From TrEMBL, chain A:
Family matches, as PANTHER family: METALLOPROTEASE TLDD (PTHR32194), PROTEASOME SUBUNIT BETA TYPE-1 (PTHR32194:SF2)
Localization annotation: Nucleus
Alphabetically ordered keywords of this record: Cytoplasm, Nucleus, Proteasome
A GO BP annotation: proteolysis involved in protein catabolic process
Top-rank taxon, per record: Eukaryota
Pfam families: Proteasome
Protein name: Putative proteasome component C5
Coiled coil location: none
InterPro entries, alphabetized: Ntn_hydrolases_N, Proteasome_sua/b, Proteasome_suB-type
GO CC annotation, single: cytoplasm
Bilayer-crossing regions: none
UniProtKB/TrEMBL annotation, chain B:
Organism: Hyaloscypha bicolor E
Presence of the UniProt keyword Ubl conjugation in the record: no
Protein name: Proteasome subunit beta
Predominant subcellular localization, coarse grouping: cytoplasm
Keywords: Cytoplasm, Nucleus, Proteasome
InterPro entries reported in the protein's UniProt record: Ntn_hydrolases_N, Proteasome_beta4, Proteasome_bsu_CS, Proteasome_sua/b, Proteasome_suB-type
Cited function: Non-catalytic component of the proteasome.
A cellular component annotation (GO) from this entry: nucleus
Lineage: Eukaryota, Fungi, Dikarya, Ascomycota, Pezizomycotina
Any one Gene Ontology BP term: proteolysis involved in protein catabolic process
PROSITE patterns given in the database record: PROTEASOME_BETA_1 (PS00854), PROTEASOME_BETA_2 (PS51476)
Length: 264, 260
């Protein structure tokens, strides 16, 4: 199970995520037994702003050193009234084992659609976030092998991001990176979104240093940050690349942007 | 009346003898597929401007023994789609029966067949995902080729874990290592694939089958190839590889210093 948490502090530094899954069943010297999970690589990232949320993911799907396809989305609109999801207000990203990710997405989408049917109103991010947690925990002993991030706008119209572990532990956050290159992207976000370790120039020495004021970033800057984060992840992680898919949620709806990434 | 509910509705012991519970229990644990036995190797496929080309050789191996040399691994569905199977052959035959019964069920509707390749792929991937979630997998990787809802070429993959993906060219097993790079040279993206002619696609797939026969120890020079377009399926199940290059081999002597 330790292999599930790719953020495991015991491992010093980033690894190829497919090396973390056990290749043989525990405790057996069987030659070949069925292991129901695999890792399809890739990385996702979400950042919230004052009146918007951006959820992004690369579009590469891998198995081992092979590229399955250069375009397999991991970011999905959730809970629209039609299959085209034109009027959806929520976005889910899943990274890890793609088949579980697909199954989780379809289940959440069906549940959010049923909520609208039963209650006559769209589901709030907060309610959806709690529901997603119970879905994940429902498979506590045969988990969905995915790291999910849910994005939307809260009741006040502010950007909201909820991040999850594979068994449903969740938290609302300002920003979060997940997947193969999470350990490469997250420290960059700490510094560039939350201004960690940044101080006001000339404000003093040692403890007298004053922290840089935390101000929410404008949308154009966040879009650039996302692109930069993925461009550098593509350089340093072999499972990330090919394309960048961004969903930008505002009060006017969800805008989808695709940008090419390096394909090597 | 007997007040014990367990006995209600059960044949009376004094008339029929003691209840024989052995029919309810199997002896030993349930057997699930733990490993493939008789296997098929790569399936390769490539989209072109108005359809898809898909190919697989006619071999079913029993480990390293080339046991069955006339096994058709491309199966037609409803005259509109082709499924190419890699992996366990008995599981392939099970899936083929499943698809036949699905085909018959679909034919009951008055409007005739309505399932296209995209619908078929969704169906198969759900079957495979359910089976892996029951820890009883169907040990196959399969490619589904045909047309989608908009009559555009459709090609997608599904495997024993329920993993699915789609691309302009796809290959399973050894083909993912050897054929896929060659096919991607011809069709690096959807745009390029939509400009390929049928002849170009056919040539690229045939060339890839040859490379697979050179380098995959579980492959055969006899293969099946199918072209799926809006006009229907053109399936040839008894093709031979042509123009193999072996003439250079008599120039090679020893493993290093040997001259003659």
């Amino acid at each position: 199970m330790a292999a599930m948490f790719s953020q495991n502090p015991l491992m010093n530094g980033p690894n190829y995520s497919f090396n973390q899954t056990p290749t043989t069943a525990a405790g057996g010297n069987k030659e070949h037994s069925f292991y129901p999970y695999t890792d399809n690589g890739g990385s996702t990232l979400a950042i919230s702003g004052v009146d918007f949320t951006i959820v992004a993911g690369d579009t590469r799907s891998t198995s081992g050193y092979n590229i399955n396809t250069r375009y397999a989305p991991k970011v999905f609109k959730i809970g629209g009234t039609t299959s085209s999801q034109d009027d959806a207000t929520l976005v889910l990203s899943v990274v890890g084992f793609a088949a579980d990710g697909e199954a989780l997405k379809e289940r959440l989408d069906a549940i959010v659609k049923m909520y609208r049917y039963q209650h006559g109103k769209p589901m709030s991010v907060k309610a959806c976030a709690q529901r997603l947690s119970t879905i994940l925990y429902g498979k506590r002993f045969f988990p969905y092998y995915v790291t999910a991030i849910l994005g939307g706008l809260d009741e006040e119209g502010k950007g909201a991001i909820y991040s999850y572990d594979p068994v449903g532990s969740y938290e609302r956050e300002q920003c979060r990176a997940a997947g193969a290159a999470a350990s490469l992207i997250m420290p960059f976000l700490d510094n560039q979104v939350n201004f960690k370790n940044q101080y006001i120039p000339g404000s003093g020495e040692g403890h007298a240093l004053q922290e840089r004021e935390k101000i929410p970033l404008p949308r154009s800057e966040v879009e650039d940050l996302v692109k930069d984060a993925f461009d550098s992840a593509v350089e340093r992680h072999i499972e990330v690349g090919d394309g960048l898919q961004m969903m930008i949620i505002t009060k006017d709806g969800i805008e989808e942007i695709y940008k090419p990434l390096k394909r090597d | 009346m007997n007040h014990l509910p367990q006995a209600w509705g059960r044949p009376r012991d004094d008339v029929y003898g003691a209840y024989d519970g052995s029919y309810l229990q199997s002896h030993g644990p349930n057997q699930h597929t733990q490993q493939p036995i008789v296997t098929g190797t790569s399936v390769i496929a490539l989209k072109f401007q108005d359809g898809v080309v898909i190919a697989a050789d006619n071999l079913a191996s029993y480990g390293s023994l080339a046991r069955f040399t006339d096994v058709k691994r491309l199966r037609k569905f409803a005259g509109t789609s082709v499924v190419g199977f890699g992996g366990d052959v008995s599981d392939m035959q099970y899936l083929d029966r499943l698809l036949n019964s699905l085909d018959i069920e679909e034919a009951y509707s008055s409007s005739g067949h309505s399932l296209n390749a995209k619908n078929l792929h969704t169906y198969l991937s759900k079957v495979l995902y359910k089976r892996r979630s029951d820890f009883n997998p169907l040990w196959n990787q399969l490619l589904v080729a045909g047309l989608d809802d908009d009559k555009k070429p459709f090609l997608a993959s599904a495997d024993l874990l329920g993993t699915t993906f789609s691309a302009p060219s796809l290959a399973t097993g050894f083909g993912a290592h050897l054929a896929q790079p060659l096919l991607r040279k011809v069709a690096p993206d959807e745009m390029a694939a939509s400009k390929l002619s049928k002849e170009q696609a056919l040539a690229a797939v045939k060339e890839s089958m040859k490379v697979l026969f050179y380098r995959d120890a579980r492959s055969l020079d006899k293969y099946s190839i199918a072209i799926i377009t809006a006009d229907g399926i053109d399936l040839k199940e008894d093709e031979k590889l042509e123009n193999q290059s072996w003439a250079f081999a008599d120039q090679i002597r020893g493993y290093g210093t040997q001259v003659n």
